[in-house]
Amino acid sequence: MPIQLDPEEHEITALVELLPNLHQSRIVEVGCGDGRLTRRYAARAASVIAFDPDEVSIAAVRSNPPAGDVELRTATVESVDIADGSADVVLLSWAL
Q1: What is the reported pTM?
Q2: Contacts of range 44-51, beta carbons closer than 8 Å, 24 or more positions apart
């Protein structure tokens, strides 16, 4: 078996299997950090709301924004304000 240099590709594959209409889905990403996964989601989803409590991380993502319909927010899980029914899936990966 070849060495997997990009383990997150398994996550995207699983997400596509769970959401066959991913291209029509609205995603909320909890703890987006540097936006590495946000970019993957944004390339495949209808929209992404990505948030992280670290303003420096959000500023870095904003300086090189992902393509697509992406809204970046500085917020914690406790403080983020996302309207009911505005997302099809909420994702949390690699965040503690």
Answers
A1: 0.85
A2: 44/12, 44/15, 44/16, 47/71, 49/73, 49/82, 49/86, 49/87, 51/75, 51/80
